[in-house]
Amino acid sequence: MDTYGSDLKASLIDALKNAEEKLAARAFKAVIMHDFSLDRLVRLDNLDAFIDSARDIHSRKGGIYPHSYQSNQQGGCAANTATTLG
Fold this sequence. Notes:
Layout: H1 2-25, E1 37-43, H2 47-59, E2 69-75, H3 77-85
Antiparallel strand pairs: 1-2
């Protein structure tokens, strides 16, 4: 029984090594499509002041609010997945 157990263990280890070598030799590729958006992030020091300014800008039919830190970041499910995979 001990010999059988040792042979079985060696056989399983060989099979796992062979499977691992085949997987390592294989080139994996990912294709991600159909979804990309741009997230606009705005950091505000005072929400109430921003809302007042936004109302003023809206009443003038447009304008800018330069008193905040703003940045763009990639967004969308596919973009985030590609970043994670990369």
